[in-house]
Amino acid sequence: MSVAVLGAGAFGTALAVALSAKGPVTLWGRRIEWQGQNPLLPGVVLPGGVSVTENLPDADILLVAVPAQAMGGFLSDHAPALDQRALVSCAKGIDLATGRSPARMLAEACPNATVAVLTGPSFAADIARGLPTALTLACADAEAGHRLQHALSTPVLRLYRTTDVTGAELGGALKNVIAIAAGVAIGAGLGDSARAAIITRGFAEMTRFAVAKGADPETLTGLSGLGDLILTATSEQSRNFRYGLSLGRAEAFDPHVTVEGAATARAVAAIAAREGIEMPVSTLIAGLAGGRLGVKQAVELLLARPLKEE
Ligand SMILES: NC(=O)c1ccc[n+]([C@@H]2O[C@H](COP(=O)([O-])OP(=O)(O)OC[C@H]3O[C@@H](n4cnc5c(N)ncnc54)[C@H](O)[C@@H]3O)[C@@H](O)[C@H]2O)c1
Ligand SMILES: O=P(O)(O)OC[C@H](O)CO
Q1: Does the complex come out with an ipTM higher than 0.85?
Q2: Which residues are annotated as part of the binding site for NAD(+)?
Q3: DSSP letter at 68?
Q4: Boundaries of each Glycerol-3-phosphate dehydrogenase NAD-dependent C-terminal domain copy (predicted)?
Q5: In terms of Cα–Cα distance, which of 140, 179, 147, 137 is closest to 15?
Q6: Is 175 annotated as catalytic?
Q7: Other C-beta atoms within 10 Å of 169: how many?
Q8: How far apart are CA 275 and CA 267, in angstroms?
Q9: Coil, strand or helix at 255
Q10: Annotated binding site for NADPH: which residue ranges?
Q11: Nearest CA to 89 among 63, 68, 113, 122?
């Protein structure tokens, strides 16, 4: 099956590099201003098996690796050309404008496509270097999921399979919000114990939100939920964690860096308020990211919450 990656950022480029171990891969970007090495993925030389193009490619499997907040614009430009394919969303977020997940946006814009999600703990730099990585491939159609799992696994990129698209996708989106909170805790000097509390209580609210949206709670304990939360909330390789660090330290952060958790926190807080889902950490991160709250005030609000059963 032919494979193309749409979106030539760090993750799309890393996936193209990794999958070129199995056969030729086309990497599509809207404006490619580099050759051989993508500045978003420094130090990685594209292998010969990856061909880069600005013309939307024709392939059996299209991995869509644009950020969640860019998915709407991307689909308005390209949806008709994507229908009737296997579309694998690689974005981890919730669209702020519509409150929809990337897979849902793909399915609505391309009603005849088979839609799947690729998610889980994986830094682009690790994948591109060929380091061992385990991910989740989620597809509601179990047979199609099985085919995609095999088509996209390599000896070092191991894909586990699930039919719980909602659980896998929300785990990946929500962990970014909690990773920002973990970064804030460390940046503000609250310590490792506070970070552990935020990760644990954050995981509880990730699960609460996902279950309210129809997810199987067990999915949240897998690679796409807990696995990715552990990675993102504990590593300075993570852009979400680094953004949180800068908030905690009251330092500026490069606005050109993709930080999915900032907009997703605001999307989640709006949905949670509307639907009565208790999401204290995400709601505070939405306030911080939106500039409505300061770190001191956010910490005070969190510590002032009523004592309750775990
Ligand atoms: N970088 C990682 O380690 C990593 C790992 C796993 C998942 N992801 C997820 O992958 C997604 C993409 O992240 P990234 O790291 O590649 O971001 P990035 O900032 O490195 O690149 C984003 C790319 O998307 C392109 N883009 C933006 N809007 C577009 C549009 N309308 N049409 C076409 N292209 C458009 C940009 O030009 C850029 O090349 C995010 O949802 C992220 O959470 C990233
Ligand atoms: O750099 P981040 O914070 O966007 O995280 C990248 C991946 O999602 C980690 O699994």
Answers
A1: yes
A2: 7-12, 124, 239
A3: G
A4: 164-299
A5: 137
A6: yes
A7: 29
A8: 12
A9: coil
A10: 11, 30-31, 92, 124, 239, 257, 260
A11: 63
Residues lining ligand 2, Cβ inside 6 A: 92, 121-123, 176, 179, 228, 231-232, 238-240, 260
| pLDDT (tens digit per residue) in 252-274 | 999 999 999 999 999 999 999 99
Tokens 């009737």 belong to residue: 84
In contact, 230 and 121? CB cutoff 8 Å: yes
Report pLDDT digits (tens) over 189-247: 999 999 999 999 999 999 999 999 999 999 999 999 999 999 999 999 999 999 999 99
DSSP reduced 3-state for 108:
helix
Question: 3-class DSSP state for residue 274?
Answer: helix
The model's pTM is 0.98
**Rounded CA separation 308/204 (Å):** 14
Domains for the chain: give ranges and CATH numbers: 3-163 (3.40.50.720), 173-303 (1.10.1040.10)
Name the DSSP class of 223: I
Strands of 57-113, DSSP E: 61-64, 86-89
Give the separation between CA 124 and CA 233, rounded to whole angstroms: 16
**Cβ–Cβ < 8 Å for 264, 174:** yes
